[in-house]
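Here is one chain, start to finish.
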Amino acid sequence: MMKVSQASTEQNSLGNAVERLFLGRLFQLLEPVERISTREYAETYRWLTTEVTAKPGLMDCMETPFMLFVMECMDNIDIPIIVARKSAQIAWSETQNSYIAKRMDIDPQNIIMAFPRQASSKSYANEKIRPLIKSVPSILQKVGDPDKCSYDFYKYPGGFLKLVTAGSPTALKSTSAPVLIVEEPDDLKEDLKGQGDALTIFAERQKTYLERKLIYGGTPSEVGFSKVDSAFLQSNQMFYHVPCPFCGQEHVLDFNNLKYDTYADGRIDPTYGKYDPTTAYYECPHCKAIWDDAIKKAAVLDAINYNNLGWKATAESTIYGFAFNELLSSFPGSNLVALAKKKLEAEVENEKGKDGKLKAFTNNSCGLAYSPGIFSLNDGMLAASRLGYNEGTVEPGGIILTAGVDVQHNRFAIVIRAWGRNGNSWLVYWGEVYGFVKDPEDPVWAALTEIFLAKYPHAFSTQQYPVNLPISALSIDSGDGNTTQLVYDWVRRMKRYNKHVYATKGSSDAGAHSKEIFTVPQAPDAKTAKEKNKKLAESHGVGVYIVGVQAGKDEVLRKLTLSGNKDRMYYYDGVRADYDEQILSNKKRRSATSGAVRYELVAGKRDEALDCEVLALHASRSLFLHLWTEKHWKQAETMLSAASVLQSATSSNVTPGIN
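Its structure:
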């Protein structure tokens, strides 16, 4: 018998071990992949920690029943694109993370998530991805300690999860993956360094895959500029229909059905107005039954007993789009009283002319793209600002007059506006005087002077006590290079009569959208030709004032949409026929290069009336009328009354210089 050496025996044992290991791994790979839904995976393996929820424990998908069908759509390979137009507090991130976890663990493939900024991707990694990996032992075993991984890359058998910032074409083009997820698409650039829309570039990363999934969800921004809103409108537009427990009729939860009572003592609260948010309740639009938070939560849960677990499509498309608002949520921070407080406070602030909170409420609670008055402004809304008074006269509330003048090669376009308490104002005159503006001797310049120096009769004027108001401030455009020096010369002459006469230019493209309406010009540095021209103008006693045109148009158009008794801009019935058309002649557009939102003139339209209104507003800001208190207005009225008595005593009867 042949003897086997000890070394040979050890070698055979090692070979057998390697073979067993190889076969074991092979059999493991040949085992069928566990087929499990995202919901089943989440409720079986996902443990939510205090890092991501106030209610730690095994994930319970019934807390957000409106997400059950979304999960099914994520699992469905026949649905390539999913869009979520969402509010806050609806658990979209955790639903999305459950899908990511399932793909990492039992159905591995490459996954890329795109974020608008690096800070966003880092926050998501630290607040969502790393806690997720740590909380699922099987994923932790595959990935390893996530804190030792780069924040933007997590490798696992069969694929990886990569977080990219959509700030450069290279980052979006560098890697391919069948699963793409986009966070807050509204913040992505439309033209990424001259190479096109960031979202389109990103979607190219999956075109080589037969089975692919593109998921993007975000809070919409403004109407006309929201990518997620636009994508939703191209989808099948699904809404979650909730049955009323009293009448059985279904409807989509709507903030118009959030009701509240007035304060019992009839008071007006400075924050919430006349309504008491602590009395909030939800009203069924069909039977008018009153729901509290518990009833609403039960109704939302009951909806899953219907087709598609409560969701109904309202359009035909292969893109599945879901619309969420915060009324669906049963989280403590989204109870009816909390939502009523946000809604009422936003409405009260909007009545004061501040729409920031209303925009935030519309985006973050209603889950809708915000449509400020400037987007919905139309002829009908303008008509509501018409009053029955005559051109050239000042309405009773008007006390201080300002004017705005736009300079064209053959005419001056002019607006005169009277300002009063609470930000209200009344148009006194809109029109044009024609002539050869480039000729300083042309009568058109004398006509402009006459209009500026004239006094305009107040509605309280009588033959015995005439009340005639002068123009207290005037802003004139000096941006046309052909007439710039002529404007400077005219402004310098007019300053003999009134120091509040301003040569202006519109703000440049750089930062134009954030430029204040009125700012005092700084002393220029005369290193460039442009600055030398400014310095030349100032050396003759004329400072050039840069007008925040974008902010000015925002303010003018906002004021024309209001319906209360504050911050209103009125105009007279007999105004020249083209006034409405010129006011509506600008539309907001997002620049393809800078991404800034700016007003642009609609082709074939004129906008001198709008420009003049902005300049008249600029002149009012030079007097700080928007900061006047009741004390200031009373003093102005007293001076006005004294002036009328003096006029009567001297038999002065000054008439406007307007034909």
